[in-house]
Amino acid sequence: MTALPARQAADRHESVQIRVRGRVQGVGFRPAVWRFAQEALLDGEVLNDGEGVLIRVRGPRDDIARLVERLRCEPPPLAAIEAIEVAPFVGWLDEGFRIIASTTGEACTEISPDAGICAACAAEVLDPFARRYRYPFTNCTHCGPRLTIVKGVPYDRASTTMAPFPFCADCAAEYADPADRRFHAEPIACHACGPKARLIRFDGRAVSYEQHSMLDDVDAAMSLMQKGEIVAIKALGGYQLACDATRADAVDRLRQLKRRERKPFALMARDMDVIRKYCAVSPGEEQALRSAAAPIVLLAASAPLRLPESIAPGMATYGFMLPSTPLHVLLFRRMTRPVVMTSGNLSEEPQVTDDAEAASKLGAILSFALIHDREIANRVDDSVVRLAAGKVRMLRRARGYAPASIRLPRGFESAPQILAFGPQMKATFCIVKDGRAVLSQHQGDLEDAATFDDYSKNLSLFPDLFDHRPDALACDRHPEYVSSKLARQRAHSQALPLFEVQHHHAHIAACLAENDRPLDAPAVLGIALDGLGLGAAGEIWGGEFMLADYRDFDRLGTFKPVAMPGGAQASREPWRNLYAHLMAEMSWAQLAMNFSELEVFQLLAGKPRATLDAMIKGGVNSAPASSCGRLFDAVAAALGICFERQAYEGEAAMRLEAIVCPKAMAVECDELAYPLTIPNLKDSGLPYIEPLAMWNALLGDLILQTPAGVMAARFHKGLAKTLAAMTLKLSRRDDEQGPRFDIVVLSGGCFHNRILLEETLRRLEEMDFKVLTHAEVPAGDGGVALGQAAIAAAHSMVAGKIRPEGGSPCASVFRDGS
């Protein structure tokens, strides 16, 4: 026998260990490794452990290199690789390649978010010759439920709501076969062994699907909707309410029953062809719709067909999604029209998940429900995104995205374990461990008792899922936020240090973290525009310019502080903000002298002005706020939008954006944009945005009967122009050391406004500033918890230790911005 050349012999017996980190468990990663290794005739083994996936392999160096390259380039659809580390392996490996049992250890890997149905499973449920034909709970390692069914760790079937459904022989064989795409997919099932869907009447009367369909209960539910009925559907993360979106009578009835006055309804359509009948869809938007996350995507309602006005009153967009589960795919098989697919709840309450609660709450308003016998372990709303400035940007981060982790930037590798409790509205919480941040799914408004209960439940679940034990806590500085009160209680009871973080600093830090800005990088200018947040000295802020990094901030500029007569009531009734803004600029006599013929003047004249004047003068329940959000409300009210009342948070600003005239934005010269000036506050000398000239121009346009869309465009353009001017002003130094900063961060809920974001971004980039914006994390309060966590981690590492020497650690309270 001829001996092999020395180099070839060495190559044949090279052994390495490959460590893969990231979201690589529960997503079919080990079977992919097994398949690649089998095809390359490599020897070795692959397993899950506490750090991710571990591969030990022997074979020619080139073949091993190709294996690593295939892992990088051809991972399973739901995997998210953060690192692949290759090192020599000294040890014996048997011939052949196999998947071996997982090892125990501290949980350092990710739980995959729920994923929309993959193409293979969608084809199966529609194939009359497939075993899972019309099975509404079909899934595999590439799709299906994750967070919504998990109850604990380790993540296996026994720790999920699939535990009551033992495998049949066929499913067990698929589960055990590495060559099958259902290998170790915990939720798999079929007609023989899995959950069942049933069409019921909430009143208990008998219903037979044969009355409405020749197929099954799922198809019968759609037949009912086609006849004008509203049907409750037990979906992946909670109940949904559905009706034919083209039937104004059904939509109006749903609004009345749900007590949802004007907030837009989400829509679902069978395919892209249906959506394109009602919306213009760009390639980026189509990609988002078809992604595994399957979010609601806001689309321009500019196609030939229109839906009833009651779908999205006052809006220029529709929120569409494609069927994300096999149940929805089957439901829409015969439906060529859009369907309202809104959360199953009454207005402002959390989505119903429990069957008994559904019967109690939804049964009082509806007759029919499509239910199933698999428990929903964790409530998860639909995610909402929109395309702006060339990127898909998160508005609500939930199903399909949470709880995927975010790798924190360089410098945070040794950060302690942090739990950040987040804000009050659009609440999320965030945990930090091993240099990664895990942001919870959207929770809602914590003032609602049921929402707070769900938030508290998840606060208990996530530490178990991620083996997280916090060394420190973080919260908003606001003393009355429910989340902050809970954080203070935990800090005291668990003897943990607490970091109270200024709201707008947290907005900016969240954007820095999302954009991978290193811990010790120089400070940037953060522009944080939102409704309200507690300032450093107890003031109300909402339009702030901060020189900031993760540890500190210096407030360099602001919006004009204007009273909010009625406090929280002013956030709900835009006319109050309009009156306060006008009275901050001129007297009533001046307003009457110049603008008395305007309808808006007559409307304000009929309000209790004397009471409001006394409140503002005496500082009674009318604290001044430097809020960009309240300025939007005031302008909207002046244009007749939501003058009396907002039916939901942000309605006035959203409808003001919706009426903007695109031609005016694109063609009108900057001189017609409403002017805002930048003087200095008398007491502090701080530069601020003064809207007096804007109000004079806007009221003058009302006299001239300028179209509202043109006026809305001039306001947006003028505001963006002034934000850029303020940025340039703040960047200049008195000496010759160069600019203070060259990077600008845009954060806060006002930057969910696509027009404001794009116009501000364009102007800043034309001035050669580098601009950081949000995409994976919401710009609004849904991202605040990430910023709180990053700030707390940064301060913890500066101290070198968390617990102070002597005394109780809970006495260590850091107040950001003090």
From TrEMBL:
Q: Does the keyword Hydrolase apply?
A: yes
Tell me one Pfam family matched here.
Acylphosphatase
What EC number(s) does its UniProt record assign? 6.2.-.-
Q: Which residues form the active site?
A: 30, 48
Gene Ontology MF annotations: ligase activity
Tree of life domain: Bacteria
What residue stretches are annotated with the Acylphosphatase-like domain? 15-101
Record bears the keyword Zinc-finger = yes
Cite the entry's keywords alphabetically.
Hydrolase, Ligase, Metal-binding, Zinc, Zinc-finger
Q: In which pathway does it act?
A: Protein modification; [NiFe] hydrogenase maturation
Reaction catalysed by this enzyme: C-terminal L-cysteinyl-[HypE protein] + carbamoyl phosphate + ATP + H2O = C-terminal S-carboxamide-L-cysteinyl-[HypE protein] + AMP + phosphate + diphosphate + H(+); an acyl phosphate + H2O = a carboxylate + phosphate + H(+)
Domain spans labelled YrdC-like: 215-400
What is the stated purpose of this protein?
A: Involved in the maturation of [NiFe] hydrogenases. Along with HypE, it catalyzes the synthesis of the CN ligands of the active site iron of [NiFe]-hydrogenases. HypF functions as a carbamoyl transferase using carbamoylphosphate as a substrate and transferring the carboxamido moiety in an ATP-dependent reaction to the thiolate of the C-terminal cysteine of HypE yielding a protein-S-carboxamide.
Q: Name the family the entry cites.
A: Belongs to the carbamoyltransferase HypF family.
**PANTHER family, per the entry:** CARBAMOYLTRANSFERASE, CARBAMOYLTRANSFERASE HYPF
According to UniProt, the name of this protein is Carbamoyltransferase HypF
